[in-house]
Design brief:
Layout lengths: L1 H5 L4 H14 L6 H9 L16 H11 L6 H14 L12 H13 L3 H8 L3 H4 L4 H8 L1 H10 L4 H4 L3 H15 L2 H15 L6 H21 L3 H15 L1 H12 L6 H16 L5 E6 L2 H11 L8 E7 L2 H14 L1 E2 L5 E2 L12 E6 L5 E8 H9 L11 H7 L17 H10 L5 H12 L4 E6 L7 E5 L4 H9 L6 E6 L2 E3 L10 E6 L18 H13 L1 H4 L11 E4 L8 E3 L10 E3 L11 E5 L5 E5 L3 H8 L4 E2 L1 E3 L5 E10 L4 H11 L3 E7 L6 E10 L5 H9 L4 E6 L11
Parallel strand pairs: 2-6, 7-11, 14-16
Antiparallel strand pairs: 1-2, 3-5, 4-5, 5-6, 7-8, 9-10, 9-11, 12-20, 13-18, 15-16, 15-17, 19-21, 19-22, 20-21
């Protein structure tokens, strides 16, 4: 494409082209094919430098192929301004500078971008590199074009120094949050720059290629612009991994007939679909360089079918599944290769059915099944969506609240990952943190959706794969997540470090007080920059709580002892001398009035009293022990052992003991076990002045923030199981 964007067309060639268009319709320029040809060394001759190329006709032709009714006058005006303002400027390659915005615009036109995007693309370097001002662009072309041009304009290096590049990307991403067309222009701009990077010094090539690999390619993937992403990958591959690239290039060039095997399978597939009455277009789709390299690493020696994939295009969604059924019926499917991205689209809008079938000779052919509309979105991503604000303007006229609080329009199609990125970038304290966090965030390939059980809108959260409950807490509640005590995942209590899966339901439990803060251990579980930046900031502001215990240092248990001589009055029905035997409540179930009770004789002649449903009662009867009739006396007081399960937080022990004291109970003994996965177990033996108040006491303890369960102890020793 770059050759067509920069080289003039002779009148004879133009006549041949026009005749061809009239006979067959306009031939689409294939970005993949042209990028592949450039990488293989098929380059066009140099363009004459005595005159500027009239490439605007190519842009107009490509634009009309997607938008037949487009008004081209604005493109001509933008071209005149761009050409006149860049006149006298040259690229490092020696070409007139206007060839660059023309090539960028042609890339976007081929992808189906609408007129406003193409206008901004023609002008995208004018404000940065010429005397043209943003106000002039706004006066002549309107607010939308000015916004797009400003979004891709770099910040001044004289103002930001070494931070200019990170701050430029921050500015660009913020602008993309309101209009994704900003990033579309940037991606096309970087693609053309990468195509012509050979004139740069090797060290500069490597630096630009690394930024492209770490930032631009992931952004192209997330925005679904696969046509740009795959060519950028190949260009980066050639610069950063020249030996592997050369091996792959030689492998492709040395197998010119590698596609014959796929052609044969394509004919068989087409015949099967014709016989089934399914209208479909079956194409052979060659793999790009990086894809061939990955397949070679995965499978070793490559066979003919490994150099490409079959693409089946149909009219309706239902036809996709019809094609799938026919393929799996008439061929041997490779079940492990099946993926349904139609029922569950990828986070970058991608929809398709993926499968693989075994050819008669044993070769495995991968097949992509999608509609023509899906194919357009798969190739062009957000570029194919056009203006994200179309249809919103009418709503804004009826509802002025449709604009954001700051007056900027909100993009209703903004992806979840972009919203997360815009949220955390505001908290990034410096360019270095932003730059490293951005690369880490974009390195996450997949995204999951979890459902929130708190009843507030929105009911879902989008998170990167591998995110934990900590990430969900900060994504949902922002800085209020500092007081997160724990979570329920799919209805079950779970540690905050629990990794969430796609489709999980999560309920986040927050402390009511404002003093709670995150633990340094949370940093071991976070995957999102928003959570990491927030936790790190809080720990820096509260150094007294941020210092973790020394490695290997034991965490002592907390024990409180008090009077052990008080308890409820118990009586046993015994005869003669046995009537003087001691009668005491069992420590395993700590019965209190008015519990239903039963007793058993134990060694030493004393009687131990259990709750009637205690497991020890069944055990005694199985070994032949005869129960003893017991009853409560007139005293209402009692002693009970309670176990409180909670999430660890500062001040929890004080709050629990305050609740116990407020209920009128006295602590006989208390034990707090070391925290495990942010969970803490408290065991209390309490003296109750009136045992009837036990239910109210347990409710009061459960109401303490962070406590999720309070129960009667099963055994008297702290930390053991309870009922």
């Amino acid at each position: 494409m770059s050759a067509e964007a920069t080289n003039p067309v002779s009148p004879a060639d133009a006549a041949v082209t026009d005749a061809s268009v009239r006979r067959r319709g306009r031939a689409r320029i294939d970005l993949r094919r042209l990028g592949r040809a450039a990488l293989l060394g098929a380059t066009a001759g140099p363009a004459p430098r005595d005159r500027l190329p009239d490439a605007i006709s190519h842009v107009a032709e490509a634009h009309r192929a997607h938008h037949p009714d487009a008004d081209l006058s604005v493109l001509r005006r933008a071209y005149v301004l761009a050409e006149s303002s860049h006149r006298g400027q040259f690229r490092k390659s020696g070409e007139p500078y206007i060839t660059h915005p023309l090539a960028v615009t042609l890339i976007l036109a081929e992808l189906g971008a609408e007129t406003t995007t193409l206008t901004a693309s023609l002008l995208h370097d004018t404000v940065e590199d010429t005397e043209v001002t943003l106000d002039q662009v706004r006066r002549e072309f309107g607010d939308e074009v000015a916004y797009l041009v400003d979004g891709v304009t770099k910040v001044e290096k004289i103002d930001y120094g070494a931070a200019a590049e990170p701050e430029t990307f921050r500015k660009m991403l913020v602008a993309t949050g309101s209009d994704v067309r900003v990033m579309s222009i940037k991606l096309a701009d970087r693609l053309h720059n990468m195509r012509t990077l050979g004139v740069m010094r090797p060290e500069k090539q490597a630096r630009i290629a690394k930024v492209t690999r770490d930032v631009l390619i992931p952004l192209a993937e997330r925005l679904g612009v696969q046509a740009l992403k795959t060519e950028l990958e190949d260009l980066v591959f050639a610069i950063l991994h020249p030996e592997e690239y050369e091996t792959t290039r030689a492998l492709i060039a040395g197998n010119p007939r590698a596609g014959d095997a796929l052609d044969a399978v394509a004919e068989q597939v087409a015949a099967v679909l014709r016989e089934a009455g399914i209208g479909a277009e079956v194409l052979v789709r060659p793999r790009h360089f990086v894809s061939v390299h990955r397949v070679r690493l995965k499978r070793g020696e490559l066979r003919g079918c490994d150099f490409g994939r079959l693409l089946v295009l149909v009219a309706e969604d239902a036809d996709c599944y019809g094609v799938l059924g026919e393929l799996h019926t008439c061929f041997t499917p490779v079940i492990s290769e099946f993926k349904d991205f139609i029922a569950a689209p990828k986070f970058n809008l991608y929809q398709s059915l993926h499968t693989a079938i075994a050819a008669p000779d044993g070769a495995v052919a991968e097949v992509l099944i999608r509609t023509h509309r899906m194919h357009k979105v798969a190739e062009a991503g957000v570029v194919a969506l056009g203006n994200p604000h179309v249809g919103q303007e009418a709503a804004e006229q009826q509802d002025p609240v449709a604009r954001a609080d700051d007056g900027e329009r909100v993009d209703p199609t903004r992806p979840g990952w972009l919203s997360r990125l815009l949220d955390w970038q505001q908290s990034a304290p410096d360019p270095d943190t932003f730059w490293s966090s951005l690369r880490a965030d974009l390195a996450e390939d997949d995204e999951i959706t979890v459902f929130c059980a708190d009843g507030s809108a929105p009911g879902t959260i989008s998170l990167p794969a591998g995110a934990s409950c900590v990430d969900a807490a900060y994504a949902r509640h922002g800085e209020a997540a500092h007081g997160c005590l724990g979570a329920r995942v799919n209805g079950r209590l779970a540690p905050l470090g629990t990794v969430l899966g796609d489709g999980d339901t999560v309920q986040l439990l927050l402390a009511q007080d404002t003093l709670s803060g995150p633990s340094p251990e949370w940093l071991d579980h976070v995957r999102t920059p928003a959570a990491r930046i927030a936790i790190t900031g809080w720990l820096r502001a509260h150094p007294e709580t941020a210092a973790p215990p020394a490695p290997g240092a034991p965490r002592p248990q907390v024990n409180v002892a008090a009077d052990r001589n008080s308890g409820a009055e118990l009586h046993a029905d015994l005869d003669g001398d046995e009537a003087a035997a001691a009668v005491r409540p069992a420590g395993c179930c700590t019965p209190v009035p008015p519990d239903e009770i039963t007793g058993f004789r134990v060694r030493g002649g004393s009687v131990t009293v259990h709750r009637a449903r205690c497991a020890a009662v069944d055990a005694m009867r199985r070994v032949g022990r005869a129960p003893v009739a017991v009853r409560w006396g007139d005293t209402a007081q009692g002693r009970v052992t309670l176990v409180a399960e909670s999430f660890g937080r500062p001040g929890l022990l004080a709050d629990l003991t305050e609740a116990i004291a407020t209920a009128g109970a006295a602590v006989v003994a208390a034990n707090v076990e070391p925290p495990s996965e942010q969970r803490v177990r408290h065991t209390y033996t309490l003296h109750l002045p009136d045992a009837a108040g036990l239910p109210a006491l347990m409710r009061a303890m459960r109401d303490v923030p962070g406590v999720y369960d309070v129960s009667r102890a099963r055994r008297g020793t702290p930390g053991q199981r309870r009922t």
